[in-house]
Amino acid sequence: MNRVGIIGIGHGVFGRRSDATVQELAFEAFRAAMQDAGIDRDALDASVIGSVPEYHKQRSLAGVVQEYLGLVPRPTWLTEVACASGSAAIRTGWMGIKSGLHDVVAVIGCQKMTELSTPEILALMGRVGEVQWESGFGTTFPAYYALFARRHMHEFGTSRENLLQVAVKNHHYGAKNPMALFRKEITLEKALASEEVATPFQVYDCCANADGAACVILASEEKATELSDKPVWLDGMGCASASMSVLRRPSLTGLPSAQQASSMAYEMAGVTADDIKVADVHDCFTVAEIMAYEDLGFCPKGESGRFIEEKQSYIGGKVAVNVDGGLKAKGHPIGATGVSMTVEIAKQLRGEAGERQVPDADVGLTHNVGGIGQYCFVQVLKKD
Amino acid sequence: MNRVGIIGIGHGVFGRRSDATVQELAFEAFRAAMQDAGIDRDALDASVIGSVPEYHKQRSLAGVVQEYLGLVPRPTWLTEVACASGSAAIRTGWMGIKSGLHDVVAVIGCQKMTELSTPEILALMGRVGEVQWESGFGTTFPAYYALFARRHMHEFGTSRENLLQVAVKNHHYGAKNPMALFRKEITLEKALASEEVATPFQVYDCCANADGAACVILASEEKATELSDKPVWLDGMGCASASMSVLRRPSLTGLPSAQQASSMAYEMAGVTADDIKVADVHDCFTVAEIMAYEDLGFCPKGESGRFIEEKQSYIGGKVAVNVDGGLKAKGHPIGATGVSMTVEIAKQLRGEAGERQVPDADVGLTHNVGGIGQYCFVQVLKKD
Asked: Residue B351 has what pLDDT?
């Protein structure tokens, strides 16, 4: 057996971080993770940086972060797959250890979204959609996911309220997360009265851009056992791709990449969806979490509306989902998000999530989507 | 023993490829590599894309390439470390196989440098230098390397002619490479008469941006032996980082990351510099090849001038360097370059390089630099 363990986790405050450069954000998370692991830099062999580089004025981001963290001359490089860049970095670090190249690797997801102006950011984001046939004709990200939402409502009777119940839940838990961008509860009434964005979406259906960083320290089984008395294991690593264009998708009510990535991860970890006690899923829009319930097998196809209605994704329900606030309330620094999810699930499995702790959490999952599901990374984490 | 083998190589024509999008360039190289390997897509488990995404109007490049190559729903992601992005992709693919996650992986380096205007490209490239203290004050890439050149000349008496002798050699061999951007010989006199760029550099000291792609198919030892009768083995994988800023370097006459990455790669492969018969090194400027001779141990420190003067890096000399034309004559599509190097060395070890074949080539090396040496990846390849 040769597992890869998480021996340190660190997370900065997500938000408009005009107080910090991207490398300073990275350091904040890295320092916390190293202190958590109780190791110093001598123990580290390499780093992997998850980020979408073009949002920063300084390019060659891996080098900048590497130097600022004091990790020169170790190997480093950056992984990019839009909003799933952080999970690609974890997968890369995992492979680095599992391959025998490295024993201990720092994985840092970091992103500054506020260096550029809003029009610049909108232009960049639009270009993550298929530029030749789609984004040029108005399919911004809210518009893409609004298509998914309308289709889900049409086919399965998912209600407007169901979508916003996801937001209400995630704000409920976000209020308990000191690292979250929005730390206040919202009511369904308030959400239903919010400004329209792209039919059927209103403001509270959409997550918010944020600056932020998160870090995990990965180690080989031998090193993890030696260095940590509470390692969490990355036992299932799923990853799949899907077409850029929604025109070439078989259905608009789910993400095929999420279905495939989760099957892979479950099989590799030797678990089923029923074993998952806590999950962080990619709720960039409310419908994304609705689709994730089904794509991940938490409920049968088409029944997500009832699932959230019955609070099955709250603590105490079938599986606790996004009890750190999710992208919705925690904020979405795109390169950091995947690592942030892994930090949260590791914390839950360690039983250290405080007032949002999921009882008896022994198996957890992260579900990190890039673009409109062009990529999906699913990881299954276990306590022992 | 569990080696990783190269079972297929493919390379497109480098140049101003207004005939092709970046995904079409990727396909050109991918198809050639798949035909070379004699396999079809069913044999592939995953892909890794090496590229610098911000030069393309379409973002989320891994997804675009993945779909265009017909590789959905396989895992894919992109690696970025400036001009070493291609080698980071190979290292990632190598780890994916070595970790046991995958058996056969396609690694594609691809880059379109001509989608943006020249001022846009210059602005982007400048930002790969350290923006806070250096690039804002005029250290473009030619200026950075010109600093290295002047220091090398000052400390070791390396002559203006020595630098341009590198260009003469690389054009000599580039003329024999049908995939090269510049396929004509130049004379030292012509080079010495060319326009000034950044003292001491003239036009012929500098490589040229180009569009292009290259692809290698990697396989586990078991699969490589099964699928190929001429696998080439990736036995040494070195990687190191260095400070962003030249102000924080101990010396300007070499790249510490190259020295460290090559030591790692030699040790891992069980070879020394003396065993290397053929090498592709990162000659973005003539002095970069001069420094590489020393950083890689091909000649003692400070003796590179004499080394090129004596034609020790020609076929028939101590070690044949850049006999595909190098970045100088072949062109430099930044994300493709590392993969292009690996394609060339594999071809040499297979004895298929035609009129630029290095006799008895059994051990070869690639040396791919990101930025001004913030990253260096060195790979040692063996025939058997």
From this structure: 98
Kindly provide the b/e burial profile for residues A173-185, where b requires at least 16 CB atoms within 10 angstroms of the residue's own CB.
bbbbbebbbbbee
Examine residue B254 and state whether it is found in any structural domain, yes or no.
yes
How many beta-carbon pairs under 8 angstroms link A with B? 194
- Whether the CB-CB separation of B278 and B348 falls below 8 Å is answered with yes
Measured between beta carbons, which residues in chain A are less than 8 angstroms from residue B71? 241
C-beta separation of B158 from B305 below 8 A: yes
- Of A81, A88, A99, nearest to B95 by CB-CB distance is A99
CATH number at residue B57: 3.40.47.10
Q: What is the span of the domain harbouring residue B202?
A: 137-206+235-382
Pairwise CB contact (< 8 Å): A371 & B60: yes
ipTM above 0.85, yes or no: yes
pLDDT of residue B211: 98
| CB pair distance less than 8 Å for A241 and B91 | no
- pLDDT for residue A135: 85
Task: Fill in the amino acid letter for B322.
Answer: N
Q: Is the pLDDT of residue B59 over 90?
A: no
B142 touching chain A per CB within 8 A? no
Partners of residue B72 in chain A, C-beta under 8 Å = 241-243
CB contact under 8 A, A127 and B74: no
In whole angstroms, what is the distance from residue A63 CA to residue A246 CA? 35
For chain A, say whether B375 makes contact (Cβ under 8 Å): yes
- What is the per-residue pLDDT across B121-158, written as a single tens digit (0 to 9) for each? 888 888 888 888 888 888 889 999 999 999 999 999 99
10-residue stretch averages of pLDDT, chain A, 384 residues long: 92 97 97 98 98 91 96 98 98 98 98 91 85 85 96 98 98 98 98 97 97 98 97 98 92 97 98 98 98 98 98 98 98 98 98 97 98 97 94
Which of A67, A73, A375 lies nearest to residue B77, judging by beta carbons? A375
Q: Per-residue b/e over B194-230, b at no fewer than 16 CB within 10 Å?
A: beebbebbbebbbbbbbbbbbbbbbbbbebbeebbeb
Tokens representing A293? Answer: 């319930």
Residue B132 lies in a domain: no
With CB atoms and an 8 Å threshold, state whether B241 touches A79: no
- How far is residue B72's CA from residue B89's CA, in Å, rounded to a whole number? 18
Chain position carrying tokens 């594609």: B108
Q: Is-above-0.80 flag for pTM?
A: yes
Do A177 and A52 share a domain, yes or no?
no
Beta-carbon separation of A63 and B244 below 8 A: yes
Tell me, yes or no, whether B176 and B250 share the same domain: yes
Report the distance separating Cα B85 and Cα B96, nearest Å: 16
Q: Is A147 in the same domain as A165?
A: yes
The span from the first CA to the last CA of chain A, in angstroms, equals 13
Catalytic, B154? Answer no
Q: Helix (H, G, I), strand (E, B), or coil: what is residue A241?
A: strand
- Contact B240/A73 with Cβ under 8 angstroms? yes
Percent of chain B with pLDDT over 70: 100
B251 touches chain A (CB under 8 A): no
- A363-370 and A375-382 as β-strands: parallel, antiparallel, unpaired? antiparallel
Nearest to A237, CA basis, from A211, A205, A270: A270
Has A299 been annotated as catalytic?
Answer: no
User: A29 at the B interface (CB within 8 A)?
Assistant: no
Interface residue B139 vs chain A (CB under 8 A): no
What does the pLDDT read at residue A247?
A: 87
pLDDT per position as a tens digit, B181-214: 999 999 999 999 999 999 999 999 999 999 999 9
CB contact under 8 A, A57 and B131: yes
User: At A75, is the secondary structure helix, strand, or coil?
Assistant: coil
